[in-house]
Structure formats: structure tokens, C-alpha cells
Design goal:
Blueprint (H helix, E strand, L loop, with lengths): L3 E11 L38 H13 L3 E2 L2 E2 L2 E4 L9 E4 L6 E10 L2 E14 L3 E4 L12 E4 L6 E7 L6 H18 L11 E10 L9 E4 L4 H20 L7 E6 L4 E7 L9 E2 L6 E2 L2 H10 L4 H12 L3 H7 L3 H13 L3 H19 L8 H13 L4 H14 L3 H8 L7 H14 L1 H8 L4 H13 L6 H19 L1
Parallel strand pairs: 12-13
Antiparallel strand pairs: 1-10, 1-11, 2-6, 3-16, 4-5, 4-15, 6-7, 7-10, 8-9, 11-12, 13-14
């Protein structure tokens, strides 16, 4: 490329606290409009904010996981601007004294590891939500806009990267990796559909090495796919302007996923436009070293470290380790299963195929079967009590009813037939009943043996051990051929 691309991401994360940042109002998503508000989050005169300690701890945990330096002394500031969803006409945020700075996050793109700098991690309150008439059912309301203040005051953590991202693919991997870490920490559900993870991007192009060009801010990218597509479109737009000798204007732009283009929204604000000044109603925040050490001890093993450990400790392929460590809950579940049934690859295969398939099919969030239940099932398969197909049927019944393996086997009479004598007798019957298939096999048609095995399985209603059935049929056919010769 003729131009160097500079991308910096500002990621806003709604924290999973039970109450808002400066008051005791609930934070439950989907409540009726304006039912989770009080004088504090509505900005009524005479009220005072009180900091939510859990929100501070979640932000500290995230900053430590992102290798940031914690500022033991930090301060909140007022970010002044007018908008209908901002009831106080200012937002309590952090400016020149953030909670944490100077961290980094490693991503992998095309097999290459790259470290992206984190400029700052700070805490602020969220704004309300505007609901425009186009989204309303009542025809009379379609000419109006409405404000829901339930979201106003919810703890919002902002993570600002350095402009070291060089492509839409790197931006995509950065956001995916960051979300995975946040979910492992359990500080947020990171649900983009509900707005608990939002991302804005600053983009600039330059043909002068080491010198950034004029930047634009891009908003309204509501999925990982849209982030990648929106960045591609904005890079293409800026490149076309520069090729024609025109200037890029510093502005905020919106991404339209329908037209696959970006559109001017407003002039880009600078810090001085917000007239920041220290928040007079909140004292400076002092972060005690003992608190930092306590929170460090609470940080779980993070996804990348767990991925590597699953490969070395359990001997799993990289693909298996990647799938299993995508979710902390699934990774925990896998390890609990392996403790009870110490064959990691077997456990991995069943979790990745049958268990995850059923979760997706039934739209379930949690695995209803205990690790002990999975261990019992796989033990029955290993002993030959159940065939693989029978075990899949038992697993589905376990999901639906919550019953144990032994109970389902007994109720459905699903115990596999593995004793040679019973299978020998049924094989003799099948051979007597299908003389044409026997002759076909003797003429070299090997598929005839599979037909006979199928008939045996049908006769036993699928309960015969398939491996033994194949061995017995093969041996008997060979014996018949020798007798005839």
C-alpha cells in the first residue's frame, strides 16, 4: 500500500454491577423505560454522587489483565456537552488523571503475534438512550423521539488503544481478543446487541512514514463484522480523497451497513470542546496498594495462557484448545470432566461436537449435564455398554430430562450386546436368511458383508456391538467359503 493506516479503537464496556456508578438504581437490561432512575442519575438539583466500589474493582481487574500501570491517585472530571440523553448536561468521566495507563494486548493475525498498546483504561457513567419514532409501533408516536434514562449512570469502562492497529483485520482480532478477556474476568457480558460492548474507531492515512494524517472517528459499528467492513469502507474513502489531491476533514462519521458507506455526522470534537474540569462533588480516588494486590490474586488464568496449557498439559490439537478456551465456562467444564474421565481428547471430541451442537440447537446458555454425567456416559462407551450412536441418544435424553446415564439405559433397554455367543447366534440367522448376499460376497462384492452386518444390527435393534458384529460376519463368511472349496 502507498499509504500507512493508523487505527485506534475506543471500546466502551458496560460493567456487570448490580447498581449504577453513583447511585443505587438497578442496572437490569430490558426494564420498562425510566423505571430504574432516581434523583441522582436524573441529575436533579441538590443530589450528590457516591462511587460504586465494585465498578472500581472491575476496572482495576481489567487494567491489570491488560498489563496497565495503576495510578494510585486519580480523579473524576466533568465532560460538558448538551444532548437530550444526558440529563445533567455533563458526564462524569475521567480526563487527565485516569485509573490506569500504558498497557498492552497481544493479538494474532495470520499466525503472527503483535502487541497493541493500551493508552488508558478509565471509568465513567453511561448516558441514556434515545428512541426515535421510526422504532415505535403507535402511528402517533412516529413523529417524536423519546428518552429512556434507565441506562443513564450505568458504570462504563473505556479502553483506549494506541493508534498501532494497521488494518481492519487487526482491529477485528483486537476486539475479539479483548472481549474474550473481559468475559473471562466476568466484568461484563459484552453483549453488543444489548449495547454492553460498543466500539468507536479513529482512522487516518498517511504517505509519510511515522507521521499520522488527519483522523476521522467512525461510529455505529454494532458487530465484529460491521467493525471490519466499516473500517474497510472508511480507509477506501480516505484513500480515494488523497489520490485526488483532496483533504480529509477531521469529523465524526457514521457507518451505514445497508449502503456499505460512511457518512458525515458532525465535526470532530477536541478535548477542549468539552471544557473538562475536576468533578467538585467527588473527592480524588486513592487506590490502596493492598487493594491492587488483592485484585491481582483474583484474576483467573487468561485465555491465551489457558490455550497454551491445554496443548501442553492435555496434548490437545491447537484447534481443540482454541474452541474449548473461547469461553471460561466451557474451559472449566472440560477440565472438570477430564478429572473424572482422564482421556482429554475423547472428552474434547464430545464437548465440541455433541454438547456444543445441542447447546446451539436448543439455544441454551449453560450446560445442564454435570461433568460427572459426562464421565459416566463416556465410561459406558469405553466398557462397550453403549455404542457411539446409542451414547448420543442417551446424551440428548440427559439434556432434556436431567436423568442419569444408568437410569436412561435401564428405562430404554439400551444396553449394548457385546457377548460373542449372542452375536454368533444372530449372525448365523442372518446368513441363513440372506443366501444371495452370501453368494455376492463370494463373487467378490465386498459391500455384501456390510449389508449382512446391517441386517444383524437391525435384528438386534442397533444394540449389537458394531465392531464385534463386523468381525463375526467376516469370519463366518470366510469359513463358509473354505467349506465350499
Amino acid at each position: 500500500m502507498k499509504y500507512q493506516v493508523y487505527i485506534g479503537l475506543e471500546v466502551h464496556v458496560e460493567l456487570s454491577t448490580q447498581s449504577k456508578l453513583f447511585c443505587g438504581c438497578r442496572t437490569k437490561f430490558g426494564a420498562p423505560p425510566n423505571t430504574q432512575t432516581c434523583p441522582v442519575c436524573l441529575g436533579l438539583p441538590g443530589v450528590l454522587p457516591v462511587i460504586n466500589q465494585k465498578a472500581v474493582e472491575y476496572t482495576l481487574m481489567t487494567a491489570l489483565a491488560l498489563n496497565c500501570t495503576i495510578n494510585e491517585n486519580c480523579r473524576f472530571a466533568r465532560k460538558n456537552y448538551y444532548y437530550p440523553d444526558l440529563p445533567k448536561n455533563y458526564q462524569i468521566s475521567q480526563y487527565d488523571e485516569p485509573l490506569a495507563e500504558n498497557g498492552w494486548l497481544e493479538i494474532k493475525v495470520n499466525g503472527r503475534t503483535k502487541r497493541i498498546g493500551i493508552q488508558r483504561v478509565h471509568l465513567e457513567e453511561d448516558a441514556g438512550k434515545l428512541i426515535h419514532g421510526d422504532d415505535m409501533q403507535d402511528l402517533e408516536e412516529k413523529n417524536w423521539s423519546f428518552v429512556d434514562y434507565n441506562r443513564a449512570g450505568i458504570p462504563l469502562m473505556e479502553i483506549v488503544s494506541s493508534p498501532e492497529i494497521r488494518s481492519p483485520e487487526e482491529a477485528y482480532e483486537y476486539l475479539v481478543t479483548l472481549r474474550r478477556i473481559l468475559r473471562y474476568l466476568k466484568v461484563s457480558d459484552c453483549n453488543m446487541e444489548e449495547g454492553s460492548l460498543r466500539c468507536d474507531a479513529n482512522i487516518s492515512l498517511s504517505d509519510k512514514p511515522g507521521k499520522m494524517g488527519t483522523k476521522t472517528e467512525l461510529k455505529n459499528m454494532n458487530s465484529f463484522k460491521e467493525l471490519r467492513e466499516g473500517l474497510k469502507a472508511e480507509i477506501r474513502r480516505q484513500m480515494e480523497l488523497l489520490e485526488k489531491g483532496e483533504k480529509v476533514i477531521q469529523e465524526t462519521r457514521l457507518w451505514d451497513p445497508r449502503t456499505k458507506r460512511t457518512y458525515a455526522m458532525r465535526g470532530k470534537e477536541e478535548a477542549h470542546d468539552y471544557r473538562y474540569f475536576p468533578e467538585p462533588d467527588l473527592p480524588p480516588l486513592y487506590i490502596d496498594k493492598n487493594l491492587i494486590e488483592k485484585i491481582k490474586a483474583q484474576i483467573p488464568e487468561l485465555p491465551q495462557q489457558r490455550f497454551q496449557r491445554f496443548i501442553t498439559q492435555y496434548g490437545l490439537p491447537a484447534y481443540d484448545a482454541s474452541v474449548l478456551t473461547e469461553s471460561r465456562d466451557v474451559a472449566d467444564y472440560f477440565e472438570e470432566c477430564v478429572k473424572l474421565f482422564p482421556k482429554p481428547k475423547v472428552v474434547s471430541n464430545w464437548i465440541m461436537s455433541e454438547i456444543m451442537r445441542f447447546l446451539k440447537q436448543e439455544e441454551l446458555v449453560t450446560i445442564k449435564i454435570s461433568p460427572g454425567g459426562v464421565a459416566d456416559l463416556l465410561s459406558e462407551v469405553e466398557k462397550g455398554t453403549l455404542s457411539t450412536s446409542m451414547a448420543k441418544e442417551v446424551l440428548e435424553e440427559m439434556f432434556r430430562t436431567g436423568k442419569g446415564v444408568s437410569q436412561i439405559i435401564e428405562e430404554k433397554g439400551m444396553r449394548q450386546i457385546s457377548d460373542h455367543q449372542s452375536i454368533e447366534q444372530m449372525a448365523d440367522e442372518v446368513i441363513r436368511e440372506n443366501p444371495k448376499a452370501v453368494k455376492d460376497w463370494q463373487k467378490g462384492k465386498t459391500q455384501a458383508a456390510k449389508f449382512l452386518v446391517g441386517q444383524l444390527m437391525r435384528k438386534t435393534k442397533g444394540k449389537a456391538n458394531p465392531q464385534i458384529a463386523n468381525q463375526v460376519i467376516e469370519r463366518k463368511l470366510k469359513s463358509l467359503s473354505r467349506e465350499e472349496t
